[in-house]
TrEMBL record, chain A:
Organism: Succinivibrio faecicola
Record PROSITE patterns: ABC_TRANSPORTER_1, ABC_TRANSPORTER_2
Pfam families: ABC_tran (PF00005)
Nucleotide-binding among keywords: yes
Protein name: ABC transporter ATP-binding protein
Keyword check for ATP-binding: yes
Automatic annotation (TrEMBL), chain B:
Keyword Membrane listed: yes
Annotated protein name in UniProt: ABC transporter permease
Keyword vocabulary terms for this entry: Cell membrane, Membrane, Transmembrane, Transmembrane helix, Transport
Keyword Transport annotated: yes
Highest taxon of source: Bacteria
Length: 588, 361
């Protein structure tokens, strides 16, 4: 047996909310033959806890855990040398250089450092980071850090690799590299296997066994190839002719999240078309009738091969409690030509380093605008300049007509901002945070009370009003960040990787909210590493090494030889092509 | 116009409430704010005194005259003095001091009755106690010598010349310096580390609103602390407040405002809470050491005295002595309060400048 868990019980102690039970009567067995096992599920499902229990970092309150016959115990040398664990926080020494970090972790696992320098260099060379070996770990970009942490885990040649969200917050390019590194390792070492958690379902789909957790329970498990067959006959593509294509804002509310008896569980834009996932046992005719009734345009409904993501959504929505939404369907969204953000030839230099090279773009009222790019491309810098958190070296930024360099405060009144990391006052309760932001935006008492009541209902925060925001589950923290940013009804909403680490269902609900806002005329500027989220954008740009490489609608930018390709593919090809070209120029 | 002012006040109010909540919400942080201060007050009350209650001495006397005998009896019957050894040679006398058994060595040579010559040896490894002990003996000898004209010392404003008085009263402000400085130095840095700094900057608050919002909570907490300390001094250590309470309160608030600007300036300069903590602490040490609270400013070299004059704590401490011990009112000590206010304006301006220009980093 690879994993053998019997009657596991585990709970966390918290100050505010008492003991939180994560696992109760949890049993799970897995054969030795699997090489790549993926754990997925919503926030607070117990993924990280389960991984920590498997490594022996946490001890179960009751029950037994066996990993290849051994009980996890951090004091057992034999056990420790057979596994490697990469935590979400990476756990490397920020102040040390890359090579020193590698040496320390290799030595801790009993590798002889004197003989293995060459070996460690070869590892670095494999991920193309040898030239950074003497760089301080903290100075690396997000994707590089993640790769180094993975190397540290691999260096001691463990039998079992346990990786907790190895690709969270990482761009598609680095994700690809990280997974090819994992695949190569478990491919060449016969006895080895990898257990990882991930919020990216496309990564989960590459594993040979997947486990979906929710609230400490296994809601679905099985060989990945088998899992997809569970929702067969439930997935469709809705195709429109080019001129007939409805705006996503007109149709996103046709799902059962908005209409109780809708046959559609999920609806999202993919590859220029609309992907549908429908309820079990829905007849195609009924579906067509429903669609004709609600979409007054001609369409073709085609069957579609289902993916793990569809399975996840279907199973995740099973426990969904329908709440009557107060959002009223807006069936004819009109695009506006009013420009709300105007960026003209901005440039940002940090010392000699040019973080952003002459960039210009406009964002219109009600538009969803995406900023995409690999880690360290200058997205965040651009983003922070438009928010007025950084001052540009050159160029001009107009936000709602206000020049940012002159009327920062007036501009800020019209902006809402959700940052990448949870950045509210952790010591303050949900309500105190809301009140603070409401007051900061000058909302008077009666308005303040109404707005807070409304937003608490919208984001279903009622249960958590008096909980310290630092002790909230991640998903709720994300909701709260968004709620705080929307209290003053901003005209522009900035979302900086706001969905990082969220599961597909949480991301769907998040984008429902974004589409709602957009259909009421709020412009939304997003950065994201989930490329499929870019399909929601009216326009997006892809940036690398400070330069804008492409700017346009998804259909304009993601076409290859007349055929529509995925944003992810377009992204990866564009970046790789651009880097090759630049490197060539440099050599020349 | 009215709406603009109302909004501005609301924003400052939001910041103040938030600051109080972050500082005071946890029970443990409430304890940390008040318990150590009170403990320190008692430690200073009992521990920080240059007075000697017990002076061990060794004696080597070669003179058998009546005068010598009467002097020796006087010393012996002074309650603070304790004779621990009678020596027969110089060697023995120095020995007793070397081994720290005696703090003083008294040598009376053979012809004392005629020459009135007397040698006092003191252990100057600890200068403060050596000086004090020597001055005690001098006083006794002086009294003995001048039978007709006795010098009577009267210590004004501190009748028993207790060093405890001056140190304790100074510490009512001194301890709150530590608090204000650390609270304000940490407040911005903590937000930088938590990522809430950006969120705060993203609100439409203006720089002065942010500064005010950040300053008021530490000032209020430090003021409450100073009041607690003054109450302890007054009721427990029975040091009478000579001045009026209003003047004292004005001084404390003005003083804390002057210090909080410095703390906020440190906080904007530092990147991590660790840096802020260490910088804040070193700053405290310098401020208190050059303030004239523990050592006399008069003893410093001229050029160094100029530095001391730029220290807000110096003015604060002299002012509280003036009000508490001498009973002066704020109008009597404008020469101390005006420089204090000027220094406050300077530190605040620096903090405001840094706040505005440090955003890029």
């Amino acid at each position: 047996m690879l994993i053998d868990i019997k009657d596991l019980e585990f709970s966390y102690k918290t100050k505010d909310r008492g003991n939180i039970c994560v696992f109760k009567n949890f049993s799970f067995c897995l054969e030795n033959s699997y090489k790549k096992i993926c754990l997925t599920g919503p926030d607070g499902a117990g993924k990280s806890t389960l991984l920590k229990l498997l490594t022996g970092v946490l001890k179960p309150a009751k029950g037994s855990i066996k990993l290849r016959g051994l009980t996890p115990n951090t004091n057992d040398r034999h056990f420790i040398e057979s596994i490697s664990y990469m935590s979400q926080t990476l756990g490397l020494y920020k102040e040390l250089s890359v090579i020193d970090n590698l040496k320390i972790f290799a030595a801790l696992k009993g590798l002889d450092i004197k003989d293995s320098t060459e070996y460690l260099y070869s590892l670095l060379k494999k991920v193309d980071l040898l030239q950074f070996k003497d760089r301080q770990f903290d100075d690396l970009s997000g994707g590089m850090k993640q790769k180094i942490a993975l190397l540290c885990a691999i260096a001691s040649k463990p039998e079992i690799l346990i990786l907790d969200e190895p690709t969270v917050g990482v761009d598609p390019l680095s994700r690809k590299e990280i997974f090819s590194l994992i695949d190569e390792y478990i491919g060449t070492n016969e006895k080895s296997c990898c257990i990882f958690s991930s919020a990216y379902l496309d990564e989960a789909a590459t594993s040979d066994f997947a486990l979906i957790l929710e609230d400490g329970q296994v809601i679905l498990k099985g060989e990945t190839t088998d899992l997809c067959s569970k929702v067969v006959n439930q997935t469709y593509t809705l195709e429109f002719s080019k001129n007939e294509k409805p705006d996503i804002r007109d149709i996103f509310s046709l799902t059962s999240r908005y209409i109780k008896n809708s046959p559609i569980i999920d609806l999202n834009p993919r590859l220029g078309q609309i992907n549908l996932t429908v309820k079990e046992n829905t007849h195609k005719e009924d579906l067509i009738d429903f669609l004709h009734e609600n979409i007054k345009k001609d369409f073709i409904l085609k069957k579609r091969e289902c993916s793990l993501e569809d399975v996840y959504i279907c199973y995740g929505m099973k426990n969904h409690v329908f709440v009557e939404p107060d959002f009223i369907k807006n069936m004819n969204f009109q695009k506006s030509d009013d420009i709300v953000v105007q960026v003209k030839d901005i440039k940002k230099k940090f010392g000699n380093f040019v973080a952003v090279e002459k960039s210009s773009f406009n964002v219109k009222k009600g538009e969803i605008f995406g900023l995409l790019g690999p880690n360290g491309a200058g997205k965040t810098t651009t983003f922070r300049m438009i928010c007025g958190l950084l001052t540009q070296t050159e160029g001009e930024i107009l936000v709602n007509g206000f020049d940012l360099s002159k009327a920062k405060n007036d501009a800020r009144k019209t902006i809402g901002y959700v940052s990448q990391k949870f950045s509210l006052y952790q010591n303050l309760s949900t309500k105190e945070n809301l009140v603070y932001f409401a007051r900061s935006y000058g909302l008077k008492r009666d308005v303040q009370k109404k707005r807070i009541e409304k937003i608490v209902k919208d984001f279903s925060l009622e249960k958590f009003l008096n909980t310290k925001s630092g002790e909230l589950p991640f998903g709720v923290q994300r909701q709260l960040s968004m709620a705080c940013a929307l209290l003053h009804h901003p005209k522009i909403l900035f979302l900086d990787e706001a969905t990082s680490g969220a599961d597909p269902l949480a991301r769907r609900k998040f984008f429902d909210k974004v589409l709602e806002l957009s259909s009421y005329g709020t412009s939304v500027i997003v950065t994201t590493h989930f490329m499929e989220e870019a399909e929601y954008c009216d326009n997006f740009l892809i940036q690398d090494r400070g330069k804008i490489l492409i700017l346009g609608t998804p259909d304009e930018t993601c076409t290859k030889n007349g055929k529509r390709i995925s944003v992810k593919q377009a992204f990866v090809e564009l970046i790789e092509h651009n880097r090759d070209k630049e490197d060539e120029n440099e050599q020349a | 116009m009215k709406a603009v002012i109302e909004e501005s006040i609301l924003r400052i109010y939001a910041l103040i409430v938030k600051e109080f909540l972050t500082i005071l919400k946890d029970k443990s942080s409430r304890v940390i704010l008040f318990a150590p201060i009170i403990v320190q007050c008692f430690i200073f009350g009992y521990g920080a005194s240059y007075h000697l209650e017990h002076v061990p001495y060794a004696l080597y006397c070669q003179d058998n005259s009546k005068e010598a005998f009467s002097l020796l009896m006087k010393i012996k019957h002074t309650p603070k003095f304790e004779q621990i050894a009678v020596c027969d040679d110089m060697h023995c006398l120095t020995d007793k001091i070397d081994s720290q058994e005696a703090l003083l060595g008294i040598y009376i040579p053979e012809n004392f009755s005629k020459t009135k010559n007397i040698d006092i040896l003191t252990d100057a490894r600890n200068t403060a106690s050596a000086n004090t002990a020597a001055s005690y003996v001098t006083q006794i000898i002086d009294e003995n010598n001048s039978k007709n004209s006795i010098l009577n010392f009267r210590y004004l404003f501190n009748p028993n010349n207790y060093t405890r008085y001056t140190i304790l009263i100074g510490m009512c402000l001194g301890l709150s310096v530590i608090q204000v400085l650390l609270l304000s130095a940490l407040s911005v840095c903590r937000e930088k580390e938590d990522g809430t700094y950006d969120m705060m900057l993203m609100t439409p608050s203006k720089t002065y609103e942010l500064l005010l919002g950040k300053a008021i909570a530490p000032v209020a907490i430090a003021t409450v602390q100073s009041i607690i300390l003054i109450l302890i001094c007054n009721f427990y250590f029975a040091i009478e407040i000579k001045g009026d309470v209003f003047s004292l309160l004005c001084l404390i608030v003005l003083f804390d405002l002057a210090i909080v600007g410095l703390g906020l300036a440190i906080s904007t300069l530092c990147k991590t809470t660790m840096q802020a903590l260490i910088s804040g602490f070193s700053c405290c040490l310098v401020l208190i050491l050059t303030s004239g609270l523990l050592t006399s400013i008069d003893g410093m070299p001229d050029w160094f005295r100029i530095i001391a004059k730029m220290n807000p704590v110096h003015y604060g401490i002299y002012a509280i002595w003036n009000i508490y011990l001498e009973g002066k009112s704020i109008f009597d000590i404008l020469d101390l309060l005006i420089p204090l206010a000027v220094l406050g304006v300077i530190t605040f301006s620096i903090a405001a400048y840094l706040f505005r220009h440090r955003i890029d980093n």
